[in-house]
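Chapter review. Work through the record for Protein SPA, chloroplastic before attempting the end-of-chapter questions.
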Amino acid sequence: MLRAPSLSRFKTPFLSSPLKLPPSTSSFSQKFHQTHRSPNSYPCVRAVDLDQNTVIAITVGVFSVAIGVGIPIFYETQIDNAAKRDNTQPCFPCTGTGAQKCRFCMGTGSVTVELGGDEKEVSRCINCDGAGALTCTTCQGSGIQPRYLDRREFKDDD
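Structure tokens for Protein SPA, chloroplastic:
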């Protein structure tokens, strides 16, 4: 029959050896201590000795968690504060007009094509439909510079 090893056989720095009771003269006292353990005889867990590397690792871990939580909170508060302020900055590409000059016709509304033999054909620009200007793609024609996240259109491609 196998018996469980006694605690005194385990060699670990985390467990202290159970307290030894002084020998008693009465047989009742010996039987009581053999069948019932006093709370002081249970093994106790000792404090772990921390070296410098362990302390640094714990500090870096706590700091990383703080940064991982703090940065999103910071950006959320900045977005909320920006939404409360009025945006009056003029759009940079169109200088606040809401329209940009057509790149194909250079704002004339017509395109000249050289056919050869000094022949030229003038036709209406197909890009701007002869208007000479297109709606600004940055501000969508409002003339106000949009905030960073407002510049993007998030489309569901499903």
